[in-house]
Structure formats: structure tokens, C-alpha cells
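Handoff note, outgoing to incoming analyst
You'll be picking up this chain. Sequence as last confirmed:
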Amino acid sequence: MNAPLFVSPVRVREPGLNALPANTERYPVRAGGSVALLLRAGDELELVSPEGLQPGEITIFDHDGRSDAGLIGAGNTGTSEGLKRILADAGPSAQILAAALAERQLIIDQAKSTDVFLEHSPAGDSISFTAGQNVTCVVVAPAHAMLANQQDTSTDLVAFVYRQPGASEKTIVRLPDPLADPIADVRIPARTAYAYEVKAGDYIQIIDVEGRECSDFQCFDAPMLEKGVERCLDVTSTRHVVGSAYPAPGLYSKFYDQNFEGMIEVIQDTCGRHDSFGVACTAKYYDDMGYPGHVNCSDNFNMALDPYGVEARRGWMAINLFFNTGVDDANQMYFDEPWSRPGDYVLMRALKDMVCVSSACPCDIDAANGWNPTDIHMRIYPGRNSFNKATAFRMTADADKQMTKETGFHSRTSQQTRNFTEYAGYWLANSYTRHGALDEYWACREKAVVIDLSPLRKYEVTGPDAELLMQTCVTRNVRRLAVGQVVYTAICYENGGMIDDGTVFRLGQDNFRWIGGSDDSGIWLREQAQKLGLQAWVRNSTDQLHNLQVQGPNSRDILKKIIWTRPDQATVEELEWFRFSIARIGDEHGIPLVLSRTGYTGELGYEVFCHPKDAPAVWDAIWEAGEEYDLTPLGLEALDMLRVEAGLIFAGYEFSDQTDPFEAGIPFTVPLKTKEDDFIGKAALIERKTHPQRVLVGLELNGDEMAANGDCVNIGRNQVGEITSAVRSPILRKNVALCRIQVEHSELGTEVEVGKLDGKQKRLPARVVGFPFYDPTKSRVRDVPPPD
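Most recent structure output, in case you need it:
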């Protein structure tokens, strides 16, 4: 048989870009939130419950504002309680929804709804309706506060609208809704630039309309420009001040001019990938590439700025928003397609009166704009508004973006520091102003600390097959886990590579809670339940369950003053290591909690789990009880010192999907001899244990110069390992590191060298030692006398 002359290539996967067919729209409905849609006669509405067990509520209004679910072929089974509950809230989202409904003159008081997904709906369940006439549709994902000892979490829904084909089949790209009422709302067509004036305090939002489009930005001090002085944003000065390639929302968020005066501050950024090294594209670049006369951003800047008397330049320094550049190991700069997706934006606040210019880059000869220049959109919001600093977080590459959130304890931690970093979609403190990392460290080793670790991912695993699911997916033997017990474990792929590490809480015979570092593990559990046809639900409860760690020698004395437990639950004094109790603050009527004897410091300690709405009161109770013990808040910088000393591993450092639990230093999580049941990755782990290649060891370095993640570890010219984490231990007065090393060189006492600079020009002598470095018998965390 002759081979075909042409074979269709497999389409490149590009998560996040417009991949929906024409006339198809997708709308996420957040738990506790709503979406209002206009449906035309014949349009189809499909509602999907990705995680299962999440009720949905659909309210339909006709052109007179009266509700009737029959207009989409459904019954009036509810009274739109979810919608009414949202409108009763005084928050900004409720006000926006109320204004939209009032504009359409919809009658809410007597509204009726059709309620869906009411009984045991599986993950991925869906239901569809067709509009019989033009209607307004409000979809709600009802939610309530989940108690810490319950598992009735609320999750998101997704609405799809399949439009009837119209006169045009062209895909309509929807802009994100305005963040407030804009005072300017301007489309910048592809291959052009636009100059505009902004007052101090106003906000500028630069939106990539269709994704993969660069936008150069420059701004001038307006009063100085009127005097004939061109004082503009200087990217070199900015890099010098912020210590990074470009500012981002958070502590180091400002762009500066050449005199180090702040020009503009980045408030929100949903892309996170920009360039500050190259200039805006120039005529010279296109001339040199063989495209003389090609339109370019620098010339477009010159034309746009000419009315302001700005001197023309052949190449404009700029912050190149959405431009994806980097520097490789050979010190060569490179660029590729932007990371930006449709609707991604950067929100900036003007720090002085300015003249600004923005472009929609015209480059179509390389990957800078994904080979296809498109429009940019610009909005200006008055300074009377207030926007939270945030970046975008996505659970997976193709998930909807979520802006950085504040934990339930943020109102308390923010009173003691401004030094926050984005961690897994939340703001967490790096260190606290009155203390600093070293003081916080010693407080944990000698007294007691409180640590906000709410971003840890929590998933409720329930159903008749929940035990079978967990036994199949984690490496530890869950069948031996008693109610009230916690076990630390790993989750692996079939090849033995780690997805995540975390803890399993057993709340009942068919009730488990998985707590890990990333959403990958929770999503994996749900996928396996579906793949195996198990009657088990895996639902995200991270936003319903926030947690504090109370750690240190005095942690028990602090908590026993305020924690109440039922007679059938262990008291604070009775609670053993890796056990938990259902508890309350104060007495039987107090705030509900889950209290576990777990932690991440290597000290005696506990974790306190509560609903975010109760978090400030929980913090206050713990803080007041800890005053006599000098309770100290502790941030991520000190926590990293503590966990390295204690030999506790961290994702992206000690493990990834390229390492197995043996290589990650947690072989005890794979009980191959005592767990007789099969589990995902077991066969590969048996093989890897039989023929190990690498192992995690401790290193003790000579001198005080620290190693760093990624440093090579050599014997002579041969690299035999790599540093995963390092710390200069205050309590041990030693310079130590964790290292993944070839098994042939893992024997205690082996002399090695840690490479600095290029790995060859500078070497730090070190030797292999055991770990944990601190309290290797774990007598402190177990609260037992150390061995003789």
C-alpha cells in the first residue's frame, strides 16, 4: 500500500487560548458566586459540575422580568435562595450583580428557580436546557461555610452556552469585565500605538485581547515634560532597585526613572512574564531581518508622542509587557511566544501625573506575537478606587485564573508585616517587622510560634469506595489508618515519580481528608476515581479550611488554655503524634476546629484548622493565650531554616515527578513489605528500590559560605550530586545542606566539593553526614526523652 502524500499534523496543545468552537461560550461559576447570561431563542445552556456533589441553581427571567424555568424546558423546583443570599450580601460582587439585574428590571422577590445536581451527582455530571425564547439566565453555585470537622464543601460549576448560528461565524473575543467604572476605555488596534495622559493615583489596565500579543509601555513625568525635560521610566534603574528582571505585585512592585523616583506601581498581573532588557521593536531590526520599511513600535511611539513634543528616537526603552524573553546557559538572549492568554492584563497605578504611550506590537516575522499581531485594550480607572495586589494562579495549565487571595488570618498577619510573597495563590508572610527570620527561628526552637499555612491544599475524599481509592493512590497502608489518625505519605505516578507528599486524615469509615502541597494530587485522585469507576468523590475544600501551625516547646501549654474537646476526643495533653481531635475554642459552644499533632518544624507542635470566617477570632484566642509565653509569628524565611534542619522535604527542591520517594529521602512512606495491596507506582518502586541510582543525604560544609539549590556536588571533575536545600544552622552552628547524590558516593564521611560560580572555579569542601541534622531521633517532636 502506498503511503499517503500528506499526513495531517497533530495539533499543538495550547492550554488557555481560544480553543472553543465558534458560537460556544464558557463561563466559570465560582462556589458561592453567580453568572448572568443572555440567551436567545434556540440557544443551549449546559451546566457542568466538575467535582460532583455541588448543587446548582438556575433562574430564568422573561422580557418582562418575571421568572419561569419553563422558558428553558425546566420545572420551577426552587425559590432562588442562592441568588437571594448573594444579593443580601453587602460585598462588591453583590452590588455589581444587583445593578445588572436592576438594569434589566428583573423581579427577584418572587423568583423561582430550577435546582440541579441535588443527589449524589458524580464528578463531571452535566445537564442541558434550550431556551424557548429570549431570556435572562442567572446561574448560581450555592455555598455555605463548611465546619472544620465536616466535609460538605462547596465547589465551582461551569456553564457552557451554545449559540444558534448567526450571520457571522467569527469568534467573538470577550474582554474581561471592567474592574470599576473606567474614565477611559480605548482599543489600540494591532500595529499601532496610542499616547494618553494619566493623573497621579489613577490606574492603567493594559489588556491582551486575544492572547500572545506584546505591548510596549513607556511613561513620562508630565510636569517635567512641560518644562522640556524628558524624564521617563528607566528599566535599568528599576532592575537595580527591585533586584529582579521586572517588578511584580508585592513588596517590590515599582518602576523608577533614572533618578530612582517611582513612576508607576504594578498592582495586578495575570500573565507574570514580561521583558525589560530589549527596546521596543525598531526599523533596524526589521531591516536586518530582510523586511525594510516594516512598521515598528519605536516609530509608532514617535508618532504618538509627537504632539507632546517628545524627541523622536530610533529605539525606545520600554517595559515590554507580555514579551517572553530569557537568557540561556550560553548567555544568549532568546524570545518565544508570549505566555499571555486572552484577557490577561497588567494593572498599574500612576505615582505622578504622566504622559504614557502603549503599543500593540506589529511584529509578524517571528514568535514575539505568536506570528499574529492582534489588538491591545487600555482602560484608566480613577484613583478613588482601591484594588488588591494580586497575581494570577492556575490550578492546572488549562484552568481558569484566580487572583491571589488573602488567607482568613491575613487581617492579623498584615498588622505585623508588609513583607508578603505569593504562595500557591495566597499571600503569605516572609518575615515579620518586629522580629525578622532569625528571631522567629529561635522563638520556635525555644518558646512558641504561630504560622499561617492556609494555602496547603485540602481535598475531601468521601463515599463507599473512598478507602479503596486512597489505598490505590497513596503509598502508605490506609487500611490500617484508624479514625482520628493521620499518616504522612506520597502519591506517585505509575513510573514511581512523585506527584506530591502530604497527610491523610481519617474522619470516618468512608471519610478522608487529603492535605498536600499542590492541586495536582487532588486532581489526580479525582481522575483515578473516575478511571476506576469508584463511588468516591474528591472535592476541593482549600477555601473552606484555613490553618495555623502552633509550634515550639510551649505550644501545648498555650493551646490547652483555650481548646475544648468532647469526652470522646483526646484533649490537647492526650493528643499523640499524628493524631487529631475534633475541638472548639473555649467551650462546647465555641468556634469548631480540627486540632492535629502535626507540623513542619521538627518541634513539638500542632495544627489548628477552621473556616476562614472564624480565622481572625481563632488567631486572637491563640495570640492572647500565648502572650505569657512570648508567642511569636513566624514567616516562610524562618520556616525554611527550621524544615531543612529537621530534614523535611519540599516540592521542587527535594522532589518532583522525576524523583521517587527513596530519592526524595522519605523511604519510610513506601512500606513494600507490609502493604500487600497493589497501588499506583508499586511495581516501579519495587524496581527502583532494588536498583537505586540516587539517594538524599546530608552534607556538612566547611566554612560559612552557604550552598544553594541546584549547586553541583563533585568528586574531582565528576559531578556526583546536586544540592536541593541548604541552611546555615543557628542552633547547630554548622553550615549544612541536603543533597541528592549517586548511591556509590552516599556513604557517611565521603568527601565532596560543592561547586559555586560556574561549578568549577570555586569549590566548597564538604562531607556526607546523616540527616535530620537537628534532633535526628525526633524526640522533641514526639515529646519523649532523647535516647542515651
